[in-house]
Design brief:
The protein is α+β, with helices and mostly antiparallel strands and 420 residues long. It folds into four domains: 2-76, no CATH class; 89-110 and 346-418, conserved putative lor/sdh protein from methanococcus maripaludis s2 fold (Beta Barrel), CATH 2.40.420.20; 114-123 and 266-345, Efflux pump adaptor protein, beta barrel domain (Elongation Factor Tu (Ef-tu), domain 3), CATH 2.40.30.170; 129-264, RNA polymerase II/Efflux pump adaptor protein, barrel-sandwich hybrid domain (OB fold (Dihydrolipoamide Acetyltransferase, E2P), Beta Barrel), CATH 2.40.50.100. Helices cover 27% and strands 36% of the residues. The chain contains seven helices and 25 strands. The chain has helices at residues 2-39, 71-83, 93-98, 165-183, 199-211, 217-226, 406-418; strands spanning 41-44, 52-53, 67-70, 89-90, 102-105, 107-123, 128-132, 137-142, 150-151, 156-161, 232-236, 241-246, 253-254, 259-264, 268-275, 288-292, 300-304, 310-312, 317-325, 336-352, 357-358, 363-370, 373-385, 388-393, 400-404. The strands form five sheets. A six-stranded antiparallel barrel has the order 6-15-19-17-16-20. Strands 7-14-12-9 form a four-stranded antiparallel sheet, with no helix packed on it. Strand 23 (373-385) and strand 24 (388-393) form a beta hairpin. The longest helix has 38 residues, at 2-39. The radius of gyration is 44 Å and the shape is elongated.
Amino acid sequence: MTKRILAVAVVAAAIGVGSLTGGTWRAHRFGAAQASAHAATVYTCPMHPDYHSDHPGNCPVCGMTLEEEHAKAATGGDAAARALPPGSVQVSAERQQAIGIRLGVVNRTAGRRVLRTTGRVAPDENRTFPIVAAVSGWIRTVESVTTGDAVRRDQPLASVFTPDPQLKSAEEAYYEGLEMLYRGAAAPAPARSHGGRTPVEEVERLADAVRSLGVSNTQLRQMAKRREVEHDIRVESPVDGVVLKRSVSSGLRFDRGFEFYRIADLSRVWILADVYREQLPFIRRGASARITTAEERSALSATVSPSEPIFDEAAQTLKVRLEAANPRLALKPGMFVDVEFRFALPPALVVPADAIVDSGLRKTVFVDRGNGSFEPRLVETGWHIGDDVEVTKGLAAGERIVISGTFFIDSESRMKAAKP
């Protein structure tokens, strides 16, 4: 009886221990399952993917609503991220749509291109005529011709008086030469004198001496008829043109070298077009360009000058000089115009200009690596024409890249790369 009681007690104890062990194992299994289920869901910020939370809410950094991610996917994403170069970012499809990310393909293209830029009209320096005082004096009268007015050749502009004795001496010598010429006109063969010059050549030399003091051809012919000493000099336009500058007024005293007027023949003008350094190789000397203005519906043709471009330090551009006919005088000095150059390009890798993030020290393009991953890729560029940029190093044809929304991707990449 005693043995039977003892056996029952042992069996009961064994059952109790087994129950306790089983209960503990079940409790542990149930708790682990709960913990696993609880840890299976995490929440991250679309703009700050490094921030994680075990419950929904808002990002403490930017205030955006946290998005749910599964632990398994997160683990796989982390492994993929570790396989990408530093600075790579992960952006969900929803977030890409929200911030306006668009993708494009790197293409190798060739064909004709149009380079559009602006230019400024300038007078042709070879057709610009300053009227400068050869003697000192003062202004007697001024005609009603002002800056911007069109003038004709030999049109009177002003009258000046000079007490300079050179003018009187030159006039008297000229009159004497004329008298000698007329006296010897009846001779069959005029003798050479004055250093081997004929009387006609001598008179022309004396006339040049008078002209050098500011006397025009029209006034010189009148003086030859009257044979009187003149102290007044008429200022006349040397060409048909437009007054670019007027510096005279009645009673004004002036010295030798003073500029009375500046007249320009605007039948042909220069156009100084702004071109960047990488665009210069495509603009050949003698090539044609198309000129348009807001006022003129029809386009004008211009030719690239053989002169060297001039660097503009303020604009950081090169001034390419064009020469254009201006028959209707529609192009005025100082006017801005639109310039188009057309040319052919060899095959090259081309991407949109917005796809390149230029920090000044380096240029970056973000390459799509799939599953929302974007890799920053350093590139080197060549020509830049319109919205297209040539990539000479760093990309391959067919690669998908970010062409819109690069600012947001670059900002997140910089923040991620800055973290230790």
